[in-house]
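Researcher: I'm comparing several assemblies side by side, and this is the next one on my list. It has 517 residues spread over two chains. Same procedure as the others: predict the full complex and return the structure.
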Amino acid sequence: MFNEKKGLRNYLLTMVFIMVLLLIAAGCSEDRLPVSETKFFILATTTSTYDSGLLDFLNPVFTEQTGIEVQVVSQGTGAALEAGKRGDADALLVHDRESELDLVEQGYFIYRNDVMYNDFIIVGPVEDSAGVTEANSALEAYNLIADGKHIFISRGDDSGTNRVELRLWEKAGIDPETGDWYLAVGQGMGETLRVANEIPGYTLTDRGTYAANRDNLELIIVLEGDPMLFNQYGIMAVNPGEHPHARHDLALTYIEFLMSEQGRQLIESYRVNGEPLFFPGLGGL
Amino acid sequence: MSSLFEGIIEAFHLIIVLDPDLLQIVFLSLRISGTAMIIGTILGVPLGAFLGLKSEKKTRLINKFIFTLMGTPPVVAGLIIYLLISRMGPLGVLGLLYTPWAMIIAQVSLATPIITGLTMVGVRSKGSEVVETARSLGAGPALAAWTVIRESRIAILGAIITGFGRIIAEVGAVMIVGGNIAGKTRVMTTAIVLETRRGNFELAIGLGLILLILAFIVNSLLYNIQRGGNSN
């Protein structure tokens, strides 16, 4: 039969040969892969911000003026904050003011600025069987939905929107997770809107994602304008004291750009389907 | 329904005008999955052939292990790689997260068990018969082993192409470790997720069609190779 020892030795020799080949292959393909020579930093942001297209509008202007490339990674706010805490991003553009201020306090982030705001809306099926359009506040709307056990779709993904939604349930004194009318789908805003559209049910969404998806949805806005549905976005840099490798200077340049008069004007002028989606600065709570 | 129809038109439009963004995404997908396939082949084929030449009894536990890894959900592989290469992870200093290399590492971890497992099965099915014949004709162990591998080349090619098919269509792992950064780590599958979320169904279905066309080309190659092999 087969000579075991010899077989093993041949195998080891082959493996060494392979490792050499592997290194050569790695060396060769390095320059074939897109490695940016320009200066860049990583901006972790929320899916709702990114999906609105705002950054595709702002960042080219910034890059043209400064030569700095913004590499955007979009996740839920929870995941984005985590990426920042771990030092996997250099700057964050998120919307959970309480947590942001907490994390600045804890020393993870610095130079936090209230960069822009917009609002959340409650959307639902055209029939509006819960009669939410008659409600005067978000809490009243939540009570109508819960009392009638009308289906409510939750993001359920620890995103900024999800956190706002859960805080509202808490304020309304309702524990929705005990009801079978409450469905947590654990997905992004666009997907959640589509689930709400198909089932159909109510959901809390940011105005931007709803505007971007409106053509594919039969959902209507059933409640808007409650100050509680206010949505503040903050921008901040990862603390270089915490993560020395962070591209701190580039992140600061970006923050300064967004907070400048030009940045404010750009944010204000951005439109989706002719509708303004973001307003610069700190909004009134 | 109209989205599906418009998507098909959009796909052909994008292909015909050779949209530069689209080309960039398609080529990046091919480069990443192609590199991962080559590395997976270099690692998986010798290992699979080595295991396939051993008797099944001796490698029972390893077999089970490899077959389990063949079914690793991509998102799990992605998460593990993420935790390894994140700045806080043991390999954090390398700064690999959100780079094409991170995606290649993740895809190698998915492709290698498939290539290893299928090579092993292929070699084993030819195995002892060929070895005995070769030995009886006076071949040494190394030459006998080489003969088996050569005889199993169709199965090995099939293993490599199956591995490639799996990783080019995979989204869970590359989304986590690549971050879907436009122009840098955005590949076809992650672009489809993004455009679906953004409500751009036409572009999403267009990209999906291109992925299907690529899959068709790869599978046609596989089919022709296997047919060619059988007629010999």
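Model: For your comparison table: Chain A touches chain B at residues 2-3, 6-7, 10-11, 14-15, 18, 21-22, 25, 29, 32-34, 36, 42, 47, 51, 53, 56, 71-74, 86-88, 188-191, 212-216, 243, 245 (CB under 8 Å).
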